[in-house]
What does this fold into?
Amino acid sequence: MKQNLIYIVFLLITLSSKASFILLPMDEVTQQNHLKAYGITYWCLSKDYKASWLLNYRGGSFLLPDADEIRKECKIRGVSFEILSDSEETAILDEISSPSQNMESVILEKAPKIAVYTPKGKQPWDDAVTLVLTYAEIPFTPIYDEEVLSDQLLLYDWLHLHHEDFTGQYGKFYAAYKNTPWYIEQKKDAEILAERLGYAKVSQEKGAVAKKIRDFVIGGGFMFAMCSATDSFDISLAADGVDICEAMFDGDASESNYQSKLNYGNSFAFKDFTLERRPEQYEFSDIDMTTKRRITPEKDYFSLMEFSAKWDPIPSMLCQSHTQLVKGFMGQTTSFDSTLIKSNVLVMGTCEFNGEARYIHGEKGKGMFTFFGGHDPEDYQHQVGDPPTVLDLHPNSPGYRLILNNVLFPAAKKKKLKT
It folds into this structure.
């Protein structure tokens, strides 16, 4: 009888301690590949597994069910993981739920459908989001103007804007590259496409695309943009119906006094900005801080803001990282002048030394948008023609983690943003 009782107790202990969960730790010390951990989580969601994002717990870890194929996938992709029993999982969730801890467990419901707005054909520069999605093995669909104007955005949950110029000024590359074959070909292709789609000018066609993307966000979509796709998108919306392009871009002069005709109420994030009139100047407006920065590369860092995980889960998700101090990087649009950001837009990353914002987020209608300054988080001053970044050399990049935070957060069970 006594032996039977001992056996029963032993069996209960064994059952209570059996492995039931997989933890993908996201702290600096434990995780050997932060970027691919996002891909594992996305893969699990696509396989209809349940997942949770443990905000501020060990760098924003992911909790997955224990399954042989998940363990195998982690090993194949080089992602560090830990096996948890039911009791260990309960202890972690109890710690997270404590009112004294700035943590939260967010349920991830389904893998978002991802579109990347990118021109067809090989570009002479790379795109950080396309790179990291490919590296993390997160599937996406490339789309461009034809798809956007034919309302195919309705098929997707999340949209990234390639480093596009939505003003029709061809990236303001005129002064440096107007005689290069790739610039000439790009301009010709854009004009042919605009004409085929029924527009007299590239600027008009790009403006129509920007408004379709605006409608996508207002209708409930999630949009993420980097570098020149941020300010040129807002400028295009503010300049709707106004010719701001000089003759070398669209064949005729710009409207007189076009600055006074801008409608800042149309833009998503920026207000009261002044456009750069000179076509030879590699700049769209005074939104960008690139030429106004006074900081050396070795001191160029920005800080992520800290939010309440329980009350503000969305910005908390977007700022998950194993460090709050992120190395800066440049681009055509490196950062945003804080004085030109609308009051209803949330600043999530700042460089106080320069008075600039690097990482901002806002709501528009039923949807949301995030703007991230700079071109490539692991290439400080990317130049046209430079080779793409090899992410195998940067598997724990905080800057690239911010991009993947944006990719994954639309999967979260929605809670009202309180900030």
Notes: Residues 202-218 form the longest helix (17 residues). Residues 2-108 form a domain with the Alpha-Beta Plaits fold (CATH 3.30.70.790).
